[in-house]
Amino acid sequence: MEVVVRVFNPNKDREGVEAVERICEVGPRDKLSLFTDLRGDPVCRIRHSPTFLMLVAELGNEIVGMTRGCIKTVTCGKKAHKHGKNNQAADSTTAKPMPVYTKLAYILGLRVSPLYRRMGIGLKLVWAMEEWFRENGAEYSYIATENDNFASINLFTDKCGYSKFRTPSILVNPVYEHRVKTSSKVRIIKLDQRDAESLYRLKFSTTEFFPRDIDSVLNNNLSLGTFLAVPKDSYRPDMWPGPTQFLASPPHSWAVLSVWNCKDVFTLEVRGASRVKRVLAKTTRVVDRALPWLRLPSIPNFFRPFGFHFMYGLGGEGPEAVKMVRALCGFAHNLAKEKGCGAVVTEVSSREPLRLGVPHWKMLSCEEDLWCIKRLGEDYSDGSVGDWTKSPPEFSIFVDPREV
Q1: Mean pLDDT on 344-360
Q2: Residues in a beta bridge with 75
Q3: Are strands 163-166 and 369-375 parallel, antiparallel or unpaired?
Q4: How far apart are CA 371 and CA 106, in angstroms?
Q5: Which of 268, 381, 260 has its CA nearest to residue 332?
């Protein structure tokens, strides 16, 4: 029988897809494993992207594999702003850099049933998805995988023509039983959606992977808000002048981030923990709940399904920007506690200076995730950028919460 790759049909493929997901997430014996519950919606992790598709591989009447993909327009570089009658470039000391956009595709959730591996099914799924990307004008395709997932890395780099591109860090912090105390010297202001969009476009539009439709991200129901941290004596909420004036005369230090509610999309669960580890974790929660003033780093109940909030759009400036980020992360922790989440997560460039302000547990985090990229055609991209796959890494990246 021949393997057929086709578009996912939610009316008849759901059970088959869920069966493959379950069998692919069987963790190693006596080791902790992370399981994902998509709550019966196989496309939930891409549903909020501008354009998305899910493909399945079928052998006879059995679903034996699947993958998901989405397409959006993002920043791939920057160029000097041109002006004047002769389209002359502005003076480099005063010119505001302008973003160069490209149409970027993302592959995630590639799964092949263990019984049908080494048959080229994963390769067929990737090729079919890339063909859809090209038909929809995507210039580049990328994937994210663990840096020790050698099977996935080899498939994409050796057989599909992808190159290792960026190595961001996934930082995970548990939500404790107690509230986190934030600095009394920092004021946190919630921006309305219009001001948040303006601030991001004015300040961060040249950041690598910045989505051109940032307004769609911020206006999504899953986005819980954008929060600005400033010195307490600099601004009050009723004194907020708007993004343009704020950036024209900012305080000596400030930071911003937004929060995305992944809890309403899917949940996670840690399996494979020993009885001793479970008892220890429960004990820390009991003590933390009874004696909250001790501020013990209690371990949430990761051994049943839990949700998390994702912090995105992290940025800021000034000598105390790290302190401002730390205050924002404390605020985000308390917000996640109110919403019943088990963790707060963010993903930043491994070179991001502000990551020093992000509290996280090393045992839960991934210091070096791996993004691989491929150019889908040769007639794309702005001349000032050239081939994005060969560009050196920037200090910051913008991680789109719609693809978490």
Answers
A1: 96
A2: 101
A3: antiparallel
A4: 10
A5: 260
CA distance 75 to 197: 15
> Exposure string (b/e) for 144-157, b if CB count within 10 Å is 16 or more?
bbeeeeeebbebbe
Residue type, position 321, single letter: A
Contacts of 146 (CB under 8 A, 6+ apart): 152, 366, 369, 370
Distance of CA 54 to the CA centre of its chain: 19
- H or E element at residue 331: helix 321-338
Per-residue pLDDT of 158-190, as tens digits, reads 999 999 999 999 999 999 999 999 999 999 999
**Domain limits of the chain?**
3-166+370-403, 172-357
Q: What is the pLDDT of residue 272?
A: 83
Residue by residue, DSSP assigns 119-136 as SSHHHHHHHHHHHHHHHT
pTM: 0.93
Within 13 A of 140's CA, how many CA atoms are on the CB side? Answer: 26
CA distance 250 to 228: 12
3-166+370-403 — its CATH code?
3.40.630.30
Q: Establish whether domains 3-166+370-403 and 172-357 are of one fold.
A: yes
The DSSP code sequence of 257-269 is EEEEEGGGT-EEE
pLDDT tens digits along 254-272: 999 999 999 999 999 988 8
What CATH number is given for 172-357 in this structure? 3.40.630.30
Q: How many Cα atoms occupy the beta-carbon half-sphere of 120 within 13 Å? A: 6
CA–CA dist 258, 246 (Å, integer): 18
